[in-house]
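Researcher: Next entry in the queue.
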Amino acid sequence: MKLPAIGLLLTIASLLFSISTVQAQNINGNWYGTIRDGGKEFPVLFILKSSHRHQLSGEIVTPLGSRMLKRCQINRDSLYFIDNFGSNILHHYAKVYSDSITMKMKGLWGNNRFYYFTLTRKNTLSSNGIGLKVDSLFVQKQVP
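Model: Structure for this entry, 144 residues:
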């Protein structure tokens, strides 16, 4: 009787691993969002790449320039990475969904406050009043 239960547990574990692998692979590409702080909006583009070995790399693009992601980690549907913004180290904690990534960021402007925002594959930044300058910056950096 114990043998079928073990087989069922292995099947469930394999299915969960497959789902997490699919989610991790689906993060490849451009993800757009807006960070809001004190009534100001800052458009961001995350260009993410994951490998079959669950390794994450990428870049953050803003109107102030681009920065490479560091210390990237994937754990099922969760991501963690840091980037350097001037002298500040920004910590990014993310949860991946089929059509979006929810992001929690700490360290902006040298404080320990968390900023929450959502990334989507659709570039809606210009329709949010950000302007074409940001849009053209993103067009230059997009992954083919």
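Model: The radius of gyration is 18 Å.
Researcher: Noted, moving on.
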